[in-house]
Amino acid sequence: MRVQVLHDTPLAPLTTFRLGGPAARLVTATTDDEVIAAVREAKAAGTPLLVIGGGSNLVIGDKGFDGTALRIATRGFALDGTTLEVAAGEVWSDVVARTVEAGLAGIECLAGIPGSAGATPVQNVGAYGQDVSAALTEVVAYDTHEDATVTLTNEQCRFSYRHSLFKERPDRYVVLRVRFRLEDAEGLSAPVAYEQTARALGVGMGERVPLAHAHDTVLKLRASKGMVLDPEDHDTWSAGSFFTNPILGNKEFAAFRERVAERLGPDAEAPAFPVGASATKTSAAWLIDKAGFTKGYGSGPARISTKHTLALTNRGEATTEDLLALAREVVAGVRDAFGVTLVNEPVTVGVEI
């Protein structure tokens, strides 16, 4: 079995931030067997392992990674009726587009999200009213503790907001394949479940629209926010949303509302989305903006996107430390203004925020 192995190779070109130092060893695997062999080899040698898919959710330190970086480049897309199985290395935006072409609904609003299919269950990727976990049925993964390939059900994946078993245990599971159950709605989308999408489509919440129209509308919405990769647009040299939307317990949210009133006036209302009976989710983008970090904020090579306050970007000459300095400034500013601590969505490697 022959795989591509490179030494002292820069990782920046493999990330959407285009940041990060070199890996001591970079292995590119194109089959599940090659992935498993590379993981076993690193484990046997006691070498740190970093798994890279599309690199859209990684912040790698300027010093790089002193271990084995495993780039998963597997391919595979198999449809059986409304059941879909895709290899972890497939480009996610291509997967979504192909399901739309096949007339299957369920993930059409996840169009344009950068990265690989194998990364989607890790973060429980979601946007515009859809989450991967709603359509996902199983994940086939390599269990490094058991040295075996395992199939995990949706329930076993322990999905929650931007979270999963795979995020909890990155040292244990390496995603190989992902399975979905989609819907044949006779060329129509799933019911529209996000207000901004409904407005853009000119329909009411819960209505269905032609599948391709939903897909293309979401792509346009994402592009307007710099959330569709474009090498010529530095607003897309990012990880998309850099911070998760805070979920606050009832007491925390009450205190937060008081801080909002103190800072912005008694009539100010922060976005609020109930999460069960005991918590409320608010908007990280709103918090950042109201704390004074507007679109385009920053004077250095790392700045907030000119299109969306939730995206931190590399303007072309940034280092990871430049990006981290900006992230820390935003976190501190939001905490000082509203008493809420933002949590980064991308995974950090060799650095902390």
UniProtKB/TrEMBL annotation:
Pathway given in the UniProt record: Cell wall biogenesis; peptidoglycan biosynthesis
One example of a Gene Ontology biological process annotation: peptidoglycan biosynthetic process
A GO MF term: FAD binding
EC annotation from Swiss-Prot or TrEMBL: 1.3.1.98
Keywords of this entry: Cell cycle, Cell division, Cell shape, Cell wall biogenesis/degradation, Cytoplasm, FAD, Flavoprotein, NADP, Oxidoreductase, Peptidoglycan synthesis
GO cellular component entries: cytosol
Subcellular location: Cytoplasm
Principal location listed in the UniProt entry: cytoplasm
UniProt-annotated catalytic positions: 162, 241 (proton donor), 345
Superkingdom of this protein's organism: Bacteria
Reaction catalysis annotation: UDP-N-acetyl-alpha-D-muramate + NADP(+) = UDP-N-acetyl-3-O-(1-carboxyvinyl)-alpha-D-glucosamine + NADPH + H(+)
Family the UniProt entry places it in: Belongs to the MurB family.
Functional description taken from the UniProt entry: Cell wall formation.
Protein's UniProt name: UDP-N-acetylenolpyruvoylglucosamine reductase
Organism in which the protein naturally occurs: Streptomyces laurentii
High-level lineage: Bacteria, Bacillati, Actinomycetota, Actinomycetes, Kitasatosporales
